[in-house]
């Protein structure tokens, strides 16, 4: 066991032998930190938090009551192999959130980036790869093997199907089931997840230049109305554009995937 002397640990917390507790950590009453857990500098576990498994929690992450971080995958194929959960820095993990470790068949590691917000009751499934500055609203659920790129917002009560990829800067409206890949900067809504334009509000809030937004809108129209298959339209855009935002979209479409795409209507 390694506990930095500056850590504040409530007398009613349980720190199992072998855990590593970094400088300036605060661990509240009735919280449990497992044998293979490493907490970075300034991590705060409020009361009734469970952090278990082979789990790393990055600096200054806050975990709220009732969250369970690092439990085994919800996968019947899992047979006890040693897999990991890696959570980045400055995340806010609210009440009742669950995050599972990976599986041997999915690479063995579930990853969460930096500066994310996971609202009450949200779930990150095994082998998911979550980027930076992602927001998952209340009760949103991310199934196994999903990839969520940076700056994505997933609305409340959403379900993301296993192996789905969600591109950078996309937004998923509340109460939406997403079963296919979402292009970067896309706007998805409706109960069965329809691509309904671009996340223009998000682009403007991030200060994206007007010229790049115009290029993205033109690219979206070309994907919706151009000749040939969806990937063929994307390939033509790659050859024609000099916008890095359009290239992000095109590269995402042309990369390998286990799912098909939500396409413009």
Structure description:
The protein has 265 residues and is of the alpha/beta class. 45% of the residues are buried. The longest helix has 16 residues, at 210-225. Helices cover 17% and strands 27% of the residues. The chain has an 11-stranded mixed beta sheet. The protein folds into 2 domains: 2-145, 3 Solenoid (UDP N-Acetylglucosamine Acyltransferase, domain 1); 204-254. It has helices at 200-205, 210-225, 230-240, 244-254, and strands at 2-3, 8-9, 14-15, 20-21, 26-27, 32-33, 38-39, 44-45, 50-51, 54-57, 62-63, 68-71, 84-87, 92-93, 98-100, 109-112, 117-118, 123-124, 129-130, 135-136, 141-142, 147-148, 153-154, 159-160, 165-166, 171-172, 177-178, 186-189, 194-198. β28 and β29 form a beta hairpin. The model has no long low-confidence stretch (mean pLDDT 97). The protein is elongated. It contains 4 helices and 29 strands. The termini are far apart.
Structure summarized in a few sentences:
With 265 residues, this protein is an alpha/beta fold. It contains four helices and 29 strands.
How many strands in all?
29
Domain unit count:
2
Low-pLDDT runs of 5+ residues are none
Could you tell me the radius of gyration in angstroms? Answer: 20 Å
Question: What layout of secondary structure does this protein have?
Answer:
Blueprint: E1 2-3, E2 8-9, E3 14-15, E4 20-21, E5 26-27, E6 32-33, E7 38-39, E8 44-45, E9 50-51, E10 54-57, E11 62-63, E12 68-71, E13 84-87, E14 92-93, E15 98-100, E16 109-112, E17 117-118, E18 123-124, E19 129-130, E20 135-136, E21 141-142, E22 147-148, E23 153-154, E24 159-160, E25 165-166, E26 171-172, E27 177-178, E28 186-189, E29 194-198, H1 200-205, H2 210-225, H3 230-240, H4 244-254
